[in-house]
Specification:
31% helix; eight-stranded mixed sheet; three-stranded antiparallel sheet; single chain
Length: 378
């Protein structure tokens, strides 16, 4: 077999790699820094399992109950250390307290984002917080299948990663709970690696930890913070060069510009994100420390929510109120006409130079104004 799917449609979910009975598929990084499946035809037996498992090739609209809530974790410490309202931590704690396993994205010692499995509350900190790049899944779906027969498993990822897992498993498991996240699109890991190396060179120091959603300046004006061995750097998101490229949509994976997994085609039990515009609808819940929007997609998700909501301040809300501040739930990012040129030149320029060349000031201003409008009643 020549290929599983056209390159521009592939989400990199790794379901094909995990399902291949002959280990004939490997994920290889392309020139843009994204992982794609490559088939070894010497091993391939043309069974077609990879194509039948691909969530993009086999996707179809599904039924979701779309019951919605807005709220946050009553534990102020956990909420302050979370990107939004700390709801993920409540779900994860419930899973762990029931002898379960939580699987999500975490940075390894080389600042590479990978999916890992944790089994103790002490490890949960690794999974908290937004990470604005694509994680590598490797053989994690196989691990899920081994564990889910006997233990509860919570799997957290982007909508396409959840879809990949479900199509790999090919049946529902009572012990499996899935949360997907509001997804704007995934930027290139290559770009993030380049950005980190440039920071380390600038400070002549090794990066220990990077926080994309530091609330030191507040939830709605969050900062990016880099912790080094001897130094610390913090910038408001609209001043941060990596975030400028991310928000300009120029560095996203090709499939993100035509995402198959928006509302109406969700495979997670719960969808989590920020409730932008909270002051317009529920000002009594606003404290600038984080508020979560919670979309329940399945009956299992509703039961899961009932197990944690006593530890929350929350209210029911309307789906339209959540969508108003999160258009990425229903529409894909628009591809930049300069995207191909940007990636051709990514190795030739510093990140700061790429920003000056490809991110127009008007673009930043428009996005800033768009964010401001979410908090103002017009």
């Amino acid at each position: 077999m020549e290929k599983v799917i056209e390159k521009e449609l592939c989400t990199g979910c790794s379901a094909c790699l995990n399902i291949c009975p002959k280990n004939a598929i490997v994920m290889v990084e392309d020139d843009d820094g994204f992982m794609h499946p490559v088939i070894d035809n010497k091993k391939c037996i043309d069974c077609g399992l990879c194509k039948r498992t691909c969530p993009v090739l086999n996707t179809k609209k599904n039924i979701a109950i779309n019951k919605c809530y807005v709220g946050y974790n009553k534990d102020e410490i956990i909420k302050n250390n979370s990107s939004s309202g700390g709801v993920f931590s409540l779900v994860a704690d419930w899973i762990l307290s029931n002898d379960g396993i939580v699987i999500g994205a975490a940075f390894d010692n080389n600042n590479k984002l990978v999916h890992i499995a944790i089994e103790t509350p002490e490890e949960l900190e690794q999974l908290r917080g937004s990470k604005y790049l694509q994680s590598e899944l490797k053989n994690i779906f196989i691990e899920v299948k081994k564990k889910v027969e006997n233990r509860k498993v919570l799997f957290v990822g982007t909508p396409c990663q959840i879809a990949g897992l479900k199509f790999f498993l090919k049946k529902e498991y009572a012990n499996l709970y899935c949360i997907d996240l509001f997804c704007h699109g995934v930027p290139s890991p290559k770009l993030f690696t380049k950005y980190i190396k440039e920071l380390e060179n600038k400070f002549n120091d090794k990066l220990l930890r990077y926080n994309f959603r530091d609330k030191m300046t507040g939830w709605d004006t969050y900062s990016n913070t880099a912790i080094f061995e001897k130094n610390k750097m913090s910038e408001l998101r609209f001043n941060n060069n990596y975030m400028k490229l991310f928000l300009s949509d120029i560095a996203l994976r090709e499939s993100c510009y035509k995402c198959n997994f928006k509302l109406g085609n969700k495979y997670a039990d719960i969808t989590l994100g920020d409730f932008w515009g909270i002051k317009n609808y529920y000002p009594e819940l606003y404290d600038n420390r984080g508020v979560s929007a919670i979309i329940i997609n399945t009956e299992k998700g509703e039961k899961l929510f009932s197990n944690i909501n006593k530890k929350m301040e929350y209210k029911t809300c309307q789906l339209e109120e959540i969508i108003a501040g999160n258009k990425s739930l229903i529409s894909s990012s628009k591809i930049s006409k300069n995207r191909c040129k940007f990636f051709r030149e990514i190795d030739s320029y510093k990140v700061e130079e790429l920003v000056k060349k490809y991110v127009k000031k008007t673009t930043i201003i428009k996005k800033t104004l768009r964010k401001i409008k979410k908090y103002i009643k017009l």
